[in-house]
Design a protein that fits this description.
Elements (H helix, E strand, L loop, with lengths): L51 E5 L4 E2 L6 E2 L4 E5 L4 E2 L5 E2 L5 E13 L5 E10 L2 E9 L7 E12 L6 E9 L4 E3 L7 E6 L3
Antiparallel strand pairs: 1-4, 1-13, 2-12, 3-11, 5-6, 7-10, 7-12, 7-13, 8-9, 8-11
């Protein structure tokens, strides 16, 4: 093993790329305690937070009493890899293995004040309840209730998928999800580990 001691390594005149290692190099070891300072553009370090998506509900969606109903977030804000189906299944299938932060937000809107007793906002993984939030209302409350839920989910990289569902117990009147980018949205992104 040879040792090279120097203060500066630079390219020769007319060249713009500097390569460390070559056909026989497999690792470059940076000792503990050494700080790498980046004053330029970096690439190939860390990871990316994709696939990622976010979509929202563009028109009010009716809810059915005491039934888990898939929330149809049909307008995409972001879909980095084209893995969110915003037209038929309303599901995200990332196809890249890893852990993802998945979230959903919804505003439930009743036709009459005090008509909701219980409602749930749930993330489903592969067609089954994975995680959700539940709210119970006592007495006369607002006609609008806001809910959020989130989870860190491990995906297998081939067929795992997630969907957003809502459930409610309607005492009287009718219930819908209030449309709009501020009211009902669903999204996920890959976590850099």
């Amino acid at each position: 093993m040879s040792k090279l001691e120097t203060n500066t390594i630079d390219t020769i005149s007319g060249s713009t790329n500097l390569t460390l290692g070559g056909t026989n190099a497999t690792d470059i070891t940076i000792p503990s305690g050494v700080t790498i300072t980046n004053n330029g553009t970096q690439s190939g370090f860390g990871g990316t937070m994709t696939p990622a998506f976010e979509a929202y509900l563009s028109s009010d969606q009716s809810m059915t009493d005491a039934t888990f109903t898939k929330i149809q977030c049909n307008t995409e804000i972001l879909d980095s890899d084209g893995n969110y189906d915003n037209s038929t299944n309303y599901r995200f299938t990332p196809t890249t293995a890893g852990k993802y932060y998945v979230y959903g937000n919804a505003v439930f809107l009743s036709s009459v004040s005090g008509t909701i007793e219980t409602f749930i906002l749930a993330i489903y993984k592969n067609g089954s309840f994975y995680k959700g939030q539940e709210t119970k209302i006592d007495g006369v409350e607002s006609r609008r209730e806001t809910m959020s839920t989130s989870a860190i989910i491990d995906f297998n990289g081939s067929s795992d998928y997630v969907e957003l569902f809502g459930w409610c117990d309607i005492l009287s009147g009718s219930l819908s999800l209030e449309a709009g980018i501020k009211y009902v949205n669903f999204g996920a992104f890959k976590i850099i580990e």
